[in-house]
Design goal:
By secondary structure, the protein is an all-beta fold. It has a domain at 216-284 and 312-331: Beta Barrel (Thrombin, subunit H). Helices cover 2% and strands 37% of the residues. It is built from 1 helix and 24 strands.
Amino acid sequence: MPRLNESEAAEGGWQPVVNMPESDLIYDMCWYPSMNSADPDTCCFAACSRDNPVRLWDAFTGQQRAQYAPYNHLDELQAPYSLAFSPDGSRLYCGFERHLRVFDIHRPGKQSERRPRIGVKPSQGGIIAALACTPARPGVYACGSYNRTVCLFAEPGSMLACMRGQLGGVTQLQFSPCGNLLYSGGRKDPEIHCWDVRRPGVILATMRRVVATNQRLQFDLDPGGRYLLSPCYTGRVRVFDLKTPPAPTNCEINYCAEWQAHADACNTVSLSPTCPVLATCSGQRHIRSMLADASSSSSSTYSEDETDQNVENRLRLFSLSTCLDNSRFAAN
């Protein structure tokens, strides 16, 4: 991390210290839950990409530590769409279409547990595109699917509840620090729902953001669980105070702060767990009309518009030292 008073980050001189090469489109990644920079052995993360096994990467050296290869009933390699470690870091959950596979991280290779087993009717349909666990509730995990459902499971795989309410396929789940609340967001869905896992099926609150495409927009909670920050398709970031009582008519919580973070679509926000710093990412696919390319190439196809002034693919850091109530943030 650069120091916030350095001009290096503002001038675009901030460079990555290590790169991990994946050979295809990356679906998901997750940090080892006990990760501590002071202990290099714990500094690793899992990543999955199309047509590849799940790889465990060393965050210090960039070397591959292990790989976990999910094979289907035809003995074909099948890449998961989502990943999550159990709170103790002993298991790795992998989301597929209508089922999960669970790996013991101490046993790399092909061996895994399929949930449900082949021949058993799935409890949840669609592609499992989001997974979440919480240390506050060991043995409980949540699955979000493209069929717009959020399901709670308890080890070794029994379903506790199935919740419906998202307008689009679920692409993100995140537990509150206390473990009693679960937040969900979907693709092409402007609503983030807050669920009480003690009363499954009841939406406690709804936060609205600007979403216009199927691109994933990843929100985040502050370590204390009071604020939720979400990106918007317009390039803005919205802040919601979760202690604000929701409206009695529609259970909606209005945002308490908003600012323009990027010229292009803002797709991810991530809060540092140790210091008041927010990271944001921008970028999306830009398509030019086929008619515009027809005159220049007889074999023209849809292509990325490199000349659009709003095209931006950038990682930015924001200082959150300014009080949230002021609705003003200083960008570095």
